[in-house]
Amino acid sequence: MVTSSPTRFSVIIPAYNEERFLPRLLDSVEVARSAYRGGGPGAASAVEVIVADNSSTDKTAAIAVARGCRLAHVSRRSIAAARNGGAHVASGEILCFVDADSRIHPRTFEAIDAALDRGRASAGATGVYLERKSLGTLLTYYMIAPFAWLTGTDIGVVFCRREDFHAIGGYDESRLYAEDVAFLLRLRRRCRERGHSLVRLRSVEALFSTRKFDEFGDWHYFALALRLGVRLIAGQANDREVADRYWYKPQR
Questions:
Q1: Number of helices and strands (H, E) in the chain?
Q2: Could you tell me the CA-to-CA distances from 199 to 36, 102, 114, 165, 252 in Å, in that order?
């Protein structure tokens, strides 16, 4: 009799009105899940997918259920709250957070496993590649990149052990944005306390959607990044005007 493997990974997807992009991400997760440990008996059950539906008004929840995902209903309109809501129902040893408009690499789970099994790393991120490139998107990307290089943090698929997630209190729900940056910085501190480090898995970069560039313009986001950078340095991540325009009242 074939027995199911314990849940190794919980893939947590915060989602608000993502019916357009969610299927693409779920397709890529299914490919990576099938490739994990050769796709042997019980391997697929080692990866669960949780869609944290943040009060969507479209078919996001229906798509998640139809694709066999676990659904976490999160009524508070907050990206951090959605991430935490998904983590609350997760059963995996390793939590993986990825945006709904992304797409992950086929070898993502194998790469995370290998990094954690080496012993020195206990959390990290895969990094990303741009969905499309232009002068504006590239300059914005390379303006932000030094921060990642200096801090050892990154975006893409962000992963950590479940016990570490709870030890640092998850994502800071007082933040309207940049909750992912603050989360990784707190994870980095916890890793250092234990003699570990964050790791960047650039061999399995996730796709970074350029839909906000498409909506607001390639150069407009460059100016926004400067504005947000100044506010983050000042310890502020609650500019309601910016948050509503770019994250909470998008045209979708």
A1: 10, 9
A2: 20, 20, 11, 16, 34
Residue 202: exposed, middle, or buried by beta-carbon count in 10 A (0-12, 13-18, 19+)? middle
The string of pLDDT tens digits covering residues 133-187 is 999 999 888 887 877 777 778 899 999 999 999 999 999 999 888 899 889 999 9
Give the Cα separation of 155 and 136 in Å (integer): 19
Report the distance separating Cα 154 and Cα 175, nearest Å.
18
Helix (H, G, I), strand (E, B) or coil at 12: strand
Q: CA 138 to CA 185: how far, in whole Å?
A: 25
Nearest Cα to 8, choosing from 118, 111, 113? 113
3-state secondary structure of 155: coil
Average pLDDT, the chain: 88
Q: Which residues contact 64 (CB under 8 A, 6 or more apart)?
A: 15, 22, 51, 53, 71
Nearest to 88 by CA among 78, 109, 73: 73
Reported as type and span, the H/E element at residue 214 is: helix 211-216
Instruction: Give the closest residue to 69 by CA, choosing from 7, 13, 9.
Output: 13
Residue 16's SS3 state is coil
Q: Which two tokens stand for residue 32?
A: 């990576």
Bridge partner residues of 161 (DSSP): 94
